[in-house]
Amino acid sequence: MTYVVLYIAGIICIWWTYRVGWREAFKKILSILIPSALIILFNVKAGRLLFRSPIVGIISILPTAILIYRGSLPLVNGFNNWIDRKANNFTESQDVVDAEVISKEDA
């Protein structure tokens, strides 16, 4: 069952990349994966420390998920700004030819 979910997620990622482009798809995937990983890691560690069972930590995920998601937004925004800054530097470094438009009447 896990493989079916991963297969469907992979197909969705490929489709999303085709639809919006590499940069936007990568930013969206990062904005989903970073908070998800932080939420899971925190709740497994908290479950081991507080309840001596990681399963209880995962079950108590809802209250901490909201706090961790809000807390991870600056980190996600930092990654997205870094990706945009790298793309803007590449765009500005290309040679651009300025041309003037002359109408047929003036020529």
What does the model show?
It is a single chain. With 107 residues, the protein is mainly α. The chain has a domain at 21-94. It is 81% helix and 0% strand. The chain is built from 4 helices and no strands. The chain starts with a helix and ends in a 14-residue tail after the last helix. The model has no long low-confidence stretch (mean pLDDT 78).
Features:
107 residues, elongated, mainly alpha, single chain, transmembrane helix, 4 helices
Question: How does the SSE layout of this entry go?
Answer:
Layout: H1 2-20, H2 22-50, H3 54-59, H4 61-93
Distance between the termini: 70 Å
Number of strands: 0
**Rg (C-alpha, Å):** 23 Å
Any idea what the shape is?
Answer: elongated
Counting H and I runs of at least 4 residues, what is the number of helices?
A: 4
What fraction of residues sit in β-strands?
A: under 5%
Low-pLDDT sequence parts = none
Mean pLDDT: 78
Which structural class is indicated by helix and strand composition?
A: mainly alpha
User: How much helicity do the residues have?
Assistant: over 70%
User: What series of H and E elements makes up the topology?
Assistant: HHHH
Largest sheet: none
Keywords: Membrane, Transmembrane, Transmembrane helix
Transmembrane segments: 6-22, 29-44, 50-69
